């Protein structure tokens, strides 16, 4: 009995500690500290960025390098060979509406190799190469069940196919486990062990972006896929990885971040909800070692997340939030999108502007180069979100379903 009482007391203390620790984070706009943001339109040597040439040949590269060195780590490009093996196929999947392919992507480097599994449903009622959505997922693999015996709103493959898009996904465990104890076991230990010795070396999120790029390598070989109309999608930590993918790899037409928060779409300097210190402490394997020096010192960052959005220009960006997900800072995500896409407007001359205030819940904003919505509800990726992503893709690609 004494042991049970002691255990109950210990658990109560732990609960109170965690609750108080969570409550210590800021959720009030009045407590957001004053801050100034680094300017995407001024180079590191003080040159004003005014033209497409200035952006593409100077400033964009600077920004990518800063994020590599300070936040996400390098993203290595070297590999010796890549092979695609069709391991399973069903041309009558989803009651004949889809062609299922399960592909093993084998990557070799320095006489070692890894395999990642790509699941792909291609609509059969489309008479030309299909545009594709790739989901980077860290959730339970049953969310992406290729047999479709289990169907979940997190990846509504049937709905995606019904709209005329191919639905693709891979699980991050194939490239880097979402676990501090085992994240090194896949591509890092096998293909890129030198990255682990670097303070600016690739870690978990960078590995997931690397995986998305390998999926794109496959899309470019499949005649049933329109690789020029491909969107990369990520939720939460996957959304952080999708933004890094879109910034690194110019082959993606649309980059979509769903409730990615700190280290994703939200401005770090706002210190609203999750902070740099909290995310580095809780998930030390996501970011490069150098990111730790900005714990409680976000103002010293040479970049902020609006510049990650900017680095994706002129390609399209979509940022989605949820009304009850204050931990991910919906306002900070919106501001980052609005400020980052100034490059789309001011450098590339794209039409459309953002409102000065945060849009109302479930009032999607779809501009020619950017999309945004705040969904009612909690932290999740839902069919509502997917429908808005597909609406935006229809608009961008000029698809008319009538």
UniProtKB/TrEMBL annotation:
The keyword Hydrolase applies. It comes from the Bacteria. Residues 105-344 form the 4-O-methyl-glucuronoyl methylesterase-like domain. This is Acetylxylan esterase. Keywords: Hydrolase, Serine esterase, Signal. The keyword Signal applies. Residues 1-21 form the signal peptide. Pfam families: GCE_fung. InterPro entries: AB_hydrolase_fold, GCE-like_dom.
